[in-house]
Amino acid sequence: MIKIDKYLQNRGLTAGATLQHTNEEANMSAATKTITTKAGNSFQILSERAFEDEAKIVSKYGQGCNYPTGKCVEGYQVDFSIEVTLKTGESKKFYIVFQSLERSDNLRAYSSSEMSTAGQYGCDDDESEELLEFTDYDNEIIEILENTAEKLCKEWFDNNQD
How far apart, in whole angstroms, are the C-alpha atoms of residue 114 and residue 11? Predict the structure, then answer.
């Protein structure tokens, strides 16, 4: 069950607001910021959208453990529309999708809110590989987006624990 009041309160909104308003508010503030990487490429987040409908908190198992070692998020997704400008001036838009880390192998179950690009799970909408090719493998853009997605996932996890 989503603890909507606390979620909205953290964003300075009232209980009458909706999650859509929260996402629109994030889109407006994110769209005004240009981030430049160490490689000289820059990007803007044009939109950010979190999908929480399928998200749930489940038990996680540590490496080699057959008993639960904590809780983690499963089924959480964050989509970003971004525009990247290379240091040469060439620009291109990309749609990047992050999903909560798949933990069935018990090897990467260290945190409660880890995210990764969704292309590795077969999501055709994720253009992270195309982004890396376009930027000559400037990983900093993906890292910044991943950190943002993980912060959103962690916030959802913290607000939805029993």
Answer: 22
